[in-house]
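batch_manifest entry 22 of 60
target: 2-dehydro-3-deoxy-phosphogluconate aldolase
source organism: Aminobacterium colombiense
requested by: lab member K.T.
priority: normal
notes from requester: please return tokens only, no post-processing; we will run our own comparison against the previous entry in this batch. if the run fails, retry once and flag.
--- input ---
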Amino acid sequence: MSTVLNTIGRCGLVPVIKLDRSEDALPLGEALIKGGLPVAEVTFRTDAAEESIEQLTSHLPNLLVGAGTILTVDQVKKAVDAGAKFIVSPGFNPTIVDYCIEHKIPITPGVNSPSQVEMGLERGLSVLKFFPAEASGGVSMLKAMAGPYKDVKFIPTGGINAENLNTYLTLPMVHACGGSWMVKSDLVAAGAFNQIVTLVQEAVFTMHNFSLIHIGINENSEEEALQCAQIFEKLFNMPVKNGNSSVFAGKSFEIMKSPYLGSKGHIAIKTNSVERAVAYLKTFGVKTLPETEKRKDGKLKVAYLDLEISGFAIHLVE
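--- output ---
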């Protein structure tokens, strides 16, 4: 899989944007970055698309920009010359796909049938667009269609919104989702970029679904850890469970038998995808501590961040 497609997978959500005026491109791109989603698929349905892509790629190097609704090879050439880093087509056009493969341009063609999936497999593609997602049967259709193709990932697009986003993203075969509800054309035309920032942030937090799991407390010995846990049990009816390196009081408190990360302890935060959460947090300069990373089947599942908040380390858990 290409670096570009890996980046899209870590972002998890691709805003599909339609620009009627190229002068709206930069403020929209800045809104996406500010909202925590540094990726954009600019549809080639308007005369401003080519200039908009050029503006975005020239002035916002941290924004990953691609071109969507590509229907001809000529459009591919124009989009790539303007700076597009990936191509998205609504259907599986062999001429377009073969041209992109020949010129090493990442492409996700649209599919909604097993025959089209196999056309992609025949050409070595491992990421395909599932379009139109909801109209083609949604999650049920995707599960059924993807069943025989364990090595293929999909980017559902079409009918995706805040309400159904995570029903797709939690599926193992879903690489990312495409959507436009946070970057609607009427908001762009009205210059409502602050509102777009808010909608993008809401979409990002919906995707990550951050929530508190437990608070970790550092103690110096097993005896002290047990004493602490027993207080929680006595006062708040939180059962004590003694483990190898810590003692739990209910599910809310983990008392460490010896000091671990964080001068006071740690805060464990649950998220739908640690990999996507880490990619998002990197936009704020926050990274993981590599020695704390735990993976399963190649995917990052657990990691501590390289920061403390009021003396507490932050522990991400999927």
